[in-house]
Amino acid sequence: MPAELEPRPTINLVDPDLYRNGDPFSQWRWLRAHAPVYRHPATELPGFWALTRYDDVRAAYRDPETFSSAKGILLRPAGHGEDPGGGRTLALTDPPRHRQLRNLVDSWFAVRAMRSLEPKLEKIAQTVVDRALELGTCDFVTDIAGRLPLYVICDMMGIPEADWELLYGLTSQAFGAGDAGSQRIAHLQIMSYFDDLRMAKARRPGEDLVSVLATAEIDGERLPADDVILNCDNLLVGGTENTRIAASGGMLALLEHPGQWAMLAADHGLLPSAVDEVLRWTSTATHIVRTVTRPVDIRGTTLAANDLVTLWLPSANRDESVFADPDRFDVTRKPNRHLALGFGEHFCVGNVLARVELRLLYQELINRSVRIDLAEEPTLLRSIVVNGPERMPVRLRG
Ligand code: HEM
């Protein structure tokens, strides 16, 4: 049925159960067709504007002066106060401060840096797949998809290998589906870990990202300790959560579309376009918030200063006016100008790394002719922040 004729679903984009066992796509489809600038009522979260069309999301991304990141980029209950990273982290600053912070780390994630890192990444991918094959039956999310990005970002940050598992547990807990109390505790533990590491690296800097941040100067001043810690947290979480969920969601899509997996196996040249289709299809960052800094008109609706605007990336990436047959998973899709990694000023700093990680993981599974079957139905995350598999038991045969 054409989207214009679909009956109006009940709109509630902030119900976490919607992402575990509901159908957010029908809500987004209706909003794109009928209410692309939608005023979402307050719940325990404040009220906000919801942008669901590709062009509107992209336009907001292009204009960081009007759509600020400095007060937070995720919906938060009003009682939780301001985001502690506001005005301090890569993700939560506006120009010009944002550019200065970004300049500190950009070269570490550039294409050239990734090229020289690739042999190491390839080895890590091999180890991860070896271990999973030994297990035979395992959880694709934790045992395969989560391991590669975690090990890579820990290595880049100069975190001793003995602590990688500890940090994996803490990041999963901090952003998993558990209760708010245990999430907060895990977050505090991550912060405390980085406080110790920051001090150690400031004393004896090495060739790693934490040393860069711990010794960095902007306008002749050292980064304050809290800013170092919060940026480390931003890199660790950014480097692990989304890639893990995208790699798992992508694998699920490939299992559900065996013809597409067979095409990839027959032609490795399709891996780059397949990775972008996985990114579009999974769009793991569900919403991104901006705060309006001055009155702005979007499609005839005026948004006031201090209003919150949400950008729904999975919706933008299924916009029928931009993507041909958007609900078809197609590893050959070209062009594929998805917004899964954001756009503009805050375009994901790990965009090249994420693509390399996804490519190497699928490549390793294909090269080894690993046969993968679902052992149980996957469980999806109960979260409005990131969407995709939380648990995906699989059987592997080499
Ligand atoms: C599939 C994997 C990934 C997805 C879907 C993803 C998604 C995103 C999105 C949507 C943004 C923009 C946020 C905004 O608009 O405010 C972003 C920013 C960011 N991402 Fe990623 N990301 C991924 C992988 C990574 C990796 C591997 C890293 C490694 C460090 C990373 C680190 C960051 C950081 C630090 C930012 C903030 C950049 C800034 O504001 O300048 N991400 N990511």
UniProtKB/TrEMBL annotation:
Pfam families: p450 (PF00067). Keywords: Antibiotic biosynthesis, Heme, Iron, Metal-binding, Monooxygenase, NADP, Oxidoreductase. Coiled coil: none annotated. Transmembrane segments: none annotated. InterPro entries: Cyt_P450, Cyt_P450_B, Cyt_P450_sf. Pathway: Antibiotic biosynthesis; mycinamicin biosynthesis. One of its GO terms (molecular function) is iron ion binding. Gene3D superfamilies: Cytochrome P450 (1.10.630.10). The keyword Metal-binding applies. CDD domains: CYP142-like (cd11033). GO terms for biological process: antibiotic biosynthetic process; cholesterol catabolic process. Belongs to the cytochrome P450 family. This is Cytochrome P450. The lineage of its organism: Bacteria, Bacillati, Actinomycetota, Actinomycetes, Micromonosporales.
